[in-house]
Write a structure and sequence with these properties.
This protein is of the alpha+beta class and about 625 residues long. The protein has three domains: about 25-70; about 120-260, Penicillin-binding protein 2a (Domain 2), CATH 3.90.1310.10; about 265-310 and about 320-600, Beta-lactamase, CATH 3.40.710.10. It is built from 17 helices and 18 strands. It has helices at about 35-40, 50-95, 145-155, 160-170, 185-195, 215-220, 240, 245-250, 265-280, 340-350, 385-390, 395-405, 405-415, 445-450, 460-470, 495-510, 590-600, and strands at about 120, 125-140, 175-180, 200-205, 220-225, 230-235, 255-260, 285-290, 295-305, 360, 365-370, 370-375, 380-385, 525-535, 545-555, 565-570, 575, 580. Strands 1, 2, 3, 4 and 7 form a five-stranded mixed beta sheet that branches. A five-stranded antiparallel beta sheet has the order 9-8-16-15-14, sandwiched between helices. The chain has a two-stranded antiparallel ribbon with strand order 5-6. Strand 8 (about 285-290) and strand 9 form a beta hairpin. Helix 9 (about 265-280) packs antiparallel against helix 17 (about 590-600), helix 10 packs across helix 12 (about 395-405) and helix 12 (about 395-405) packs across helix 14 (about 445-450).
Length: about 625
Amino acid sequence: MSAPFFSPSRGAAGAATPPAAGGPASARIPLRPLARILQARQRGENPDRIERENLRRRREEMRDRARQRSEGRLLALAGLFLCAFIVVALRMGELAASEPREPGAVGHREAIAQARADIVDRNGRILATNMLTRALYAQPPMMVDKAHAARELARIFPDLDEERLLARFNGPRKFIWIKRKISPEQQQQVHDIGEPGLLFGPREMRLYPNGALAAHILGGAGFGREGVNAAEVIGIAGVEKYFDERLRDPARAAEPLVLSLDLTVQAALEEVLEGGMKIMGARGAAAVLMNAHSGEVLAMASLPDFDPNNRPRPLTEGKAEDSPLFNRAVQGLYELGSVFKIFTAAQALELGLLSPDSMVDTRGPIRMAGFTIRDFKDYGSQLSLADVIVHSSNIGTARTARMIGAGRQREFLADLGLLEPTPVELIEAAGARPLRPKEAEWKELSTMTVSYGHGVSVSPLHLAAAYASIVNGGSRVRPTLLRRDGAARGSQVISPEVSAAVRTMLRQVVQRGTARLGEVPGYAVGGKTGSADKPGLRGRPGYDGDRLISTFASVFPSADPAYVLVVSLDEPEIFAAGELRRTAGWTAVPVAAEIIRRVAPLMGLKPAIANQGQAGVTLARN
């Protein structure tokens, strides 16, 4: 009999040893249990079969436990995948139910402020507001068919070039702006291309619902800082630029900027001015309608104009006035001619040098330092000061100015605001500095020529403010584009008595002088004409007698003027009364008269109807 075999799982006494806590599960099945080995030997069996059987059972048990662990891990992983799929499904459902929007990159830059206040006229009617639109951009790495996209975009947007677009799409850039703003129709057409690399970003753009109306006053707006999902709207001209900080203030976004303009009056003025410019064949035109007491500009126009919704590019060559962006009413500095004569008469009256009936020497011509001053026709040896204005005598005005002197003339024109830029709320106004003789050169000859509007260049807005100052009782007027409540009294430039005398003279110019075509029944129009030769072309010395700036500065009603209207035409001409006419009395005056006829009722001015006695009728007064 062989020596007894002791299993490793048995102790010295041969008893089975329980497995240690936490030990391997396979230790529970001993490979060679002593009792079974002894029984097998007694029966003559091979004890090795018991070991092989126990080894097989141990391995099966280990395999079952490993399988159970694997199945548990798989169940846990399946649960995680199920949760992930549920989250994705819920997010997809949320996106499907929400408003579609383009994805955008999240950055840490300062947020782009998009709010911009509206601009309204004095009655609250919208002049400028905001509209939500879209911008179009491309991400070339996401594009599938670049050639097809370039071809279709060139078809939708005719200003785009197909070859240039394709070259940009094939370039190294990963982001390309195509259009800063597009219409809903254009957006749908781009959608129909089906190109995943063409994307849209939201934009709030500036909208001018009245088109070109008051274009030079509003100016226009564009985009400043831009992101994929936002763009900053900034003013680039006009009141949009002047009040840019105030319009962009988020705290005041709901508070509109109220201008002094009357939209209805502005539309009527522009319509008549454009018709007059075409009839007179003028290159351009300007008009300013101002409250004579407050300085509020109720309407102001410059032609040709533009649509601020599609603002043209500035000119890169040629003269500034050739661009429709040029504001002739504010930026245009012209020698306006005889409209200046009333300032000379007013100063002479204020200084006590003359009265309206004082006789002025009109013999001529006057020759001085190589220059000749002459009248349009011979008015005799003398005229009263009133008739000097009525008949527009250069010689009589020049001699009156000589009595005043250079220093006092310069001070008076400065008091009227004619020697500095106007303070009106337009960004362009600051650069419109009147052209005048230097102080050292402002001698006797300059005094005489300036007295009738030559040698000094101002804008139509300058002229309107100066006329308002001398007809409203003599109080200095500063023009404004903001609505004011009541009169804004400035410094006293002339006395009320002199102002009344000036109004009488201006009325007589229309009744029996050079502006007889300016009469509008019921409104007692007064005014002064001015026809000034333009400087020679291409810098040639002297003036071109066939090229005129024709101006009519009018006030109405003349007894107590409520409004001042200045109309200026650049190179007008019309065939009338058997010959070609260019002077203001035939060109600017009838245009101004038609404007007054149209706008006076719109501003609440009732025509004054003269009382005509009739037989058997007695006028009763309450």
